[in-house]
Design goal:
The radius of gyration is 26 Å and the shape is globular. It has helices at 58-72, 105-111, 116-135, 188-197, 209-225, 253-256, 262-271, 276-284, 286-294, 299-302, 309-312, 319-332, 334-353, 431-439, 442-448, 464-472, 493-497; strands at residues 15-16, 19-27, 31-38, 41-48, 82-87, 93-98, 102-104, 138-139, 148-151, 157-159, 166-167, 480-484, 505-508, 511-517, 529-535, 540-549, 556-562, 571-572, 582-585, 587-592. It has 17 helices and 20 strands. With 598 residues, the protein is α+β, with helices and mostly antiparallel strands.
């Protein structure tokens, strides 16, 4: 057996003490999580990771120690348990935690199509878990759809990741006005505090227990109003409803989803009141109120939260749901047909300009509103969702109804019967609109709602000249370092100091990109410019850099990939990402590639 000190990335098969690493499962600003096995039992190992931008390396150890103290005080079936902790010789450490085989809450809501009773059962348990957590003097401070898992074996929800958590008497480690967290789930008071003190490094928000409950209420609102929460504000669906306005509460859940029972919609509205004095009593009684609502057993409460595909075709009883379904069908096929449609645009434009010498061009057939539906790929969950502004709804495409069989005239054969299964809508785009999409930048096209490409780069090997150049610079295959993702996007002074903060994000589109190194590696200094290309069509943002220019020197060939190993080999997107307009942290890890590109 080999034992290794924990590097930034542990490869499958490596042993960390008695734990054998199976695979990397994800990571954040301060740690990486690995699935591991010990004595035949699975554990999640959370290994610390020091940010080079931090001015105090000791905080890496202290943050995990604070998380450990939070966890050892908790004993609840719906909160992940800690089973061990070790500090390594270099000052880093790892926590051994329950490994939950299942879905994030966002994925469960999207894939399992729960009923209102199912949703309430889960949220009653989560509210109860928060009560236990708060009774022990612990605050989670980052409750979100991605920090709750739903176990496959029994459907039980489990709160995970207390990396931002705090316990009574804990040492203050926050180096920003707000503690680490997810923008979408912050209370109005926290958002107002940040707005007023964002440029005051010494300002600190006193996070109350009820802010955890408010975050859980936002999760419940999303569960009732967002049919695809794991995809967040994907270009193929209606963007998420804004819940971060300081003065205006989000619309009632029933208005966004007419299937929501009125009593449940009214209860959620009270939980999301902008006035904290009105909201506080509702948050305090959240569990009891949800338990009472969950006891309802009428058909309305046993129905699925969102309409099935058949119901999406439209029914007089659920016009709002039918409209939402129509928009989803219109947008779902966009990515799959982009290449063919744009090619057709080019051909059509060419035909318009160059008529056939044998006669006038044939008259174009009218566009059809019906066509195949393409399944959209599932994007990873997230944890940070910026406010979504209101956008105009996409034009609806009427669904062609079945025609009754009628008697044909005597001199004509009878028409074949119309198929029983209704046709599904496909997006309809005018030539003028698609021409604009083809000419637009990736970011602008995504904002317009243009169909987006899902093409990823082909695999290839790093050229030998680049490998030689990197070796001359004392760079290592797989060596990891931090980069500023896009030097052409302004970063506030606050984000310069706190690039890991949830509000320090950039938006990147497909095409060329210029980044720069934020730390020295080998003989490559800080501030080295990296030139490459970005693809945003997959679950992760893939970027390949092929040229580097150290300060005051000539360019050299390199091979650098954005992100850590695992998955598609790119960087995980933040909530609010769209193909062509992906949201990333302003600083992300990158690594040198000597062999095959991911």
């Amino acid at each position: 057996m080999t034992t290794a000190e924990p590097p930034t990335f542990l490869k499958p098969g490596v042993h960390l003490d008695a734990y054998r690493i199976r695979r990397w499962r994800g990571g954040g600003a301060y740690g990486d999580v690995y699935e591991s096995v010990k004595d035949g039992r699975h554990f999640a190992l959370k290994v610390t990771k020091h940010r080079q931008s931090s001015d105090d390396p000791s905080k890496t150890y202290l943050r995990q120690l604070r998380e450990l103290v939070c966890l050892v005080q908790l004993d609840h079936p719906n909160i992940a348990k800690v089973h061990g902790w070790t500090r390594t010789a270099d000052g880093r450490g790892y926590l051994a935690l329950d490994f939950v085989e299942g879905w994030t809450l966002a994925e469960w809501l999207q894939e399992m199509r729960p009923t209102f009773q199912d949703v309430l059962r889960v949220f009653v348990k989560l509210a109860n878990a928060l009560e236990h957590l708060h009774s022990r003097g612990v605050r989670h401070r980052d409750i979100s759809l991605s920090n709750v898992m739903v176990r496959k074996s029994d459907g039980e929800p489990v709160i995970i990741d207390l990396g931002a958590g705090e316990h009574s008497g804990a040492l203050e480690l926050t180096d920003a006005p707000l503690p680490p967290g997810t923008t979408r789930y912050r209370s109005p008071e926290a958002a107002r505090f940040f707005k007023e003190h964002r440029d005051e490094p010494s300002a600190r928000y006193d996070f109350p227990l009820e802010d955890d409950s408010y975050a859980l209420a936002v999760c419940l609102f999303d569960a009732l109003t967002d049919p695809e929460p794991a995809k967040n504000a994907d270009a193929r669906k209606v963007p998420r409803i804004n819940v971060n306005s300081l003065s205006m509460a989000p619309p009632p859940a029933r208005r966004a989803n007419p299937r929501v029972p009125e009593p449940l919609s009214a209860r959620v509205a009270r939980l999301l009141e902008r006035d904290v004095e009105k909201r506080r009593p509702a948050l305090a009684s959240m569990r009891e109120a949800l338990e009472e609502l969950g006891a309802q057993d009428s058909a309305e409460w046993q129905a699925e939260v969102f309409a099935s595909a058949e119901e999406d075709m439209g029914s007089p009883e659920t016009p709002g749901v039918a409209r939402a379904g129509t928009r989803r069908r219109m947008l779902a096929g966009a990515a799959a047909v982009l290449a063919a449609v744009l090619a057709a645009v080019g051909v059509a434009m060419l035909m318009r300009q160059s008529p056939s010498p044998e006669g006038p061009p044939a008259q174009a057939a009218p566009e059809s509103p019906s066509g195949p539906r393409a399944e959209a790929p599932v994007a990873p969950p997230s944890t940070h969702a910026p406010p979504a502004s209101a956008v105009p709804s996409s034009p609806e495409v009427p669904v062609q109804k079945e025609s009754p069989v009628v008697n044909a005239p005597k001199n004509q054969p009878p028409s074949p019967p119309v198929a029983k299964k209704p046709k599904k809508s496909a997006p309809v785009f005018s030539l003028e609109f698609l021409g604009k999409c083809a000419a637009a930048t990736a970011f602008a096209a995504a904002q317009w709602g243009c169909p987006a490409s899902q093409v990823l780069p082909t695999q290839e090997r790093c050229p030998s000249a680049a490998v030689t150049a990197m070796k001359h610079r004392w760079l290592e295959d797989g060596g990891q370092f931090l980069i500023r993702v896009d030097v052409n996007q302004a970063v506030t002074p606050y984000c310069e100091r706190n690039p890991a903060h949830s509000m320090c994000e950039v938006v990147v589109g497909d095409g060329e990109i210029e980044s720069e190194t934020r730390e020295k590696y080998g003989d490559l200094p800080v501030g080295t410019r990296l030139y490459g290309r970005v693809w945003t069509g997959g679950k992760e943002v893939v970027a390949r850099y092929t040229r580097a220019r150290p300060p005051g020197e000539e360019e050299i060939p390199i091979c650098v990939a954005l992100g850590l190993p695992g998955g598609e080999g790119g960087a995980l997107t933040q909530p609010g990402s769209k193909p062509g307009a992906a949201v990333l942290m302003s600083e992300e890890p990158a690594r040198f590639i000597f062999g095959q590109w991911p």
